[in-house]
Inverse folding.
């Protein structure tokens, strides 16, 4: 691999097979495209290994809260508890006496250990705000497992029934209120942060628990990718746009490769020919396995099209730079090699060696409430058609778990339709940040709703880039995006302190 290629972390060296997508092979992949999981950072494409430096990790302390299993019922079993993990960093905190703020990261669909090294926005800005940092793990992930063991927690729909976003954000409220009481910090303002699915949780938390959180930064949060609010082909349309903008010839090569794969697969020993051409580790069972592998490759590149490497440009550089006269599939393979390196073989599976709780957990969430209807028709993207079929989707989920999904529950519980009209008067203090090169941005809030529910967008931004750690190579537009977010949060906190002072002064005169 040359020096311009992305360096793949040794921890995630199984190439694309390590990235977890909406569904595993045994799940509902037949009913919608195999889209990327809502993760802050790609587990496959990492310029640096996602680990703490020793000096940073020493500042983080791990604790456990005795969490209630069911916040919304009063049956005896609802009072069952489990240990929920949270991590704190007191290094920069100005203390309760100064009413110094508390920054809370809301964990998402992964072990907290995977996000801690990635969410640099909090540690980068904590000194300026003199903020206490708290990171709370999402129930059913990592070490925050109900029922005593993962086996029992994931046994069936009865035990999984407590695994949903409403219970999760209620967990966060309990932990935050507990910590404020314990630290005598009742007057310390709380700002919640989250990225992707965690960004959804952050925005929903502010709407549901305004008495707990003063404000929320929701990065790359596709809260409008439910029901029919966003076009089903929106995600892949952005992927296609990204590739076409970089190189029209690259886009055309990819577009025509799908029929070429099917043509070769139909020949005698065609699957073996394809397997050899793309150096597939295991025998291909059908051409769909190869096509899914390539689709995931392009989506990874588009979703995490981060500076300074810009993976879409890397793929297209490989495709366009292939030796003159190479056939279409050889060019496509050159794009794969340019992105992820020159390996002896490539694993097409999307379920290999990744923490099992992430696979199982996100499968349940997307088969219960997180039903994001993503599909595509004929010739509306650079991909082959794959329409979303809710009937087939529901049947597959029911066959897996014995219960059907509730595809309209998210918009019923949190809203989404007519969001400009509804949130204009109802909501406040939410930043929706999106990079328009992120395919999930099509389901995000992309314009200001009010003076305090604001959208910060960057034309060249990618998925959750703004809440990741700042680096010396960050482009000016990214630096300015983060600066704008910090200034908005400063305004929220300044206004809170002014209100606190005024109310305290008024009460002192009563």
């Amino acid at each position: 691999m040359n020096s311009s290629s992305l360096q793949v972390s040794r921890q995630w060296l199984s190439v694309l097979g390590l990235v977890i997508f909406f569904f595993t092979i045994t799940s509902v992949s037949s009913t919608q495209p195999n889209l990327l999981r809502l993760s802050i950072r790609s587990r496959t494409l990492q310029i640096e290994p996602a680990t703490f430096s020793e000096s940073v990790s020493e500042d983080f302390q791990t604790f456990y809260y005795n969490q209630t299993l069911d916040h919304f019922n009063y049956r005896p079993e609802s009072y069952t508890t489990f240990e929920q993990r949270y991590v704190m960093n007191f290094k920069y905190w100005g203390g309760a006496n100064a009413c110094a703020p508390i920054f809370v990261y809301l964990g998402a669909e992964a072990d907290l250990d995977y996000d801690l090294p990635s969410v640099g926005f909090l540690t980068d800005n904590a000194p300026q705000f003199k903020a206490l940092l708290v990171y709370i793990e999402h129930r059913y992930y990592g070490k925050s497992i109900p029922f005593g063991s993962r086996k029992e927690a994931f046994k069936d729909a009865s035990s999984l029934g407590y695994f949903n976003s409403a219970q999760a954000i209620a967990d966060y409220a309990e932990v935050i209120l507990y910590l404020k009481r314990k630290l005598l910090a009742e007057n310390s303002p709380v700002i919640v942060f989250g990225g992707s699915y965690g960004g959804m949780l952050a925005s929903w938390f502010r709407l549901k628990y305004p008495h707990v959180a003063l404000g929320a930064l929701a990065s790359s949060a596709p809260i409008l990718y439910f029901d029919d609010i966003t076009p089903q082909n929106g995600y892949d349309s952005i992927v296609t746009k990204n590739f076409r903008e970089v190189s029209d010839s690259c886009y055309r090569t990819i577009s025509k490769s799908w029929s070429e794969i099917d043509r070769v697969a139909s020949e005698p020993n065609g699957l073996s020919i394809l397997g050899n051409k793309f150096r597939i580790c295991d025998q291909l069972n059908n051409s769909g396995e190869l096509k899914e592998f390539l689709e995931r490759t392009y989506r990874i590149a588009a979703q995490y099209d981060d500076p300074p490497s810009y993976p879409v440009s890397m793929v297209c550089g490989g495709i366009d730079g292939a030796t003159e006269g190479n056939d279409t599939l050889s060019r496509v393979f050159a794009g794969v090699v340019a992105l992820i390196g020159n390996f002896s073989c490539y694993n097409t599976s999307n379920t290999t060696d990744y923490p099992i709780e992430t696979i199982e957990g996100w499968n349940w969430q997307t088969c219960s409430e997180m039903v994001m209807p993503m599909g595509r028709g004929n010739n509306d993207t650079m991909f082959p058609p794959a329409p979303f079929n809710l009937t087939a989707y529901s049947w597959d989920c029911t066959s897996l778990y014995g219960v059907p999904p509730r595809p309209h529950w998210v918009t019923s519980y949190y809203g989404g339709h007519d969001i400009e009209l509804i949130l204009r008067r109802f909501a406040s203090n939410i930043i929706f940040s999106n990079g328009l090169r992120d395919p999930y941005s099509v389901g995000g809030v992309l314009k200001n709703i009010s003076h305090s529910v604001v959208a910060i967008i960057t034309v060249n931004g990618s998925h959750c880039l703004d809440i990741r750690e700042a680096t010396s190579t960050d482009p000016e537009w990214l630096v300015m995006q983060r600066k704008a977010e910090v200034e908005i949060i400063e305004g929220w906190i300044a206004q809170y302190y002014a209100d606190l002072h005024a109310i305290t002064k008024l009460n002192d005169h009563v």
In short: Confidence is low (pLDDT under 50) at residues 1-31, 47-55. The chain has 18 helices and eight strands. The CA atoms of residues 313 and 386 lie 26 Å apart.
